[in-house]
Amino acid sequence: MTYVIAEPCVDVLDKACIEECPVDCIYEGDRMLYIHPDECVDCGACEPVCPVEAIYYEDDVPEQWKDYTKANADFFEELGSPGGAAKVGKVSADPKMVRDLEPRGE
Ligand code: F3S
Ligand code: F3S
């Protein structure tokens, strides 16, 4: 199992979650961040610090955001498992469903 970042992160990218992750498995895309499903150790440290409540345990992802479990996995299709986000930096690999979302206005 893994934790998943869902739609509330889109165009917000607060990044408070990154500071909490002991294994540096939260990676930055163009419009949101993604948790590596194999590198995540399910510690739960990231979940409470997100100011927009974008992070959920895989079993608890709200119904309307269920597709984000796959979106988090799909982000790593070409990237594979780098074993740490800091050295990778921002990657332009947002899945199509994220790229296609309307820009979020303030
Ligand atoms: Fe996004 Fe929340 Fe992290 S907005 S970058 S999931 S703290
Ligand atoms: Fe990292 Fe733990 Fe979240 S391993 S992605 S802080 S659940």
Automatic annotation (TrEMBL):
4Fe-4S ferredoxin-type domain segment(s): 31-60
Cofactor(s) listed in the protein's UniProt record: [3Fe-4S] cluster; [4Fe-4S] cluster
Pfam family, one: Fer4
Gene Ontology molecular function terms on file: 3 iron, 4 sulfur cluster binding; 4 iron, 4 sulfur cluster binding; electron transfer activity; metal ion binding
Keywords: 3Fe-4S, 4Fe-4S, Electron transport, Iron, Iron-sulfur, Metal-binding, Repeat, Transport
InterPro entries for the chain: 4Fe4S_Fe-S-bd, 4Fe4S_Fe_S_CS, 7Fe_ferredoxin, FdxA_Actino, RnfB_subfamily
Cofactor note: Binds 1 [3Fe-4S] cluster.
Role description: Ferredoxins are iron-sulfur proteins that transfer electrons in a wide variety of metabolic reactions.
Protein's recorded name: Ferredoxin
Organism of this sequence: Goodfellowiella coeruleoviolacea
Lineage: Bacteria, Bacillati, Actinomycetota, Actinomycetes, Pseudonocardiales
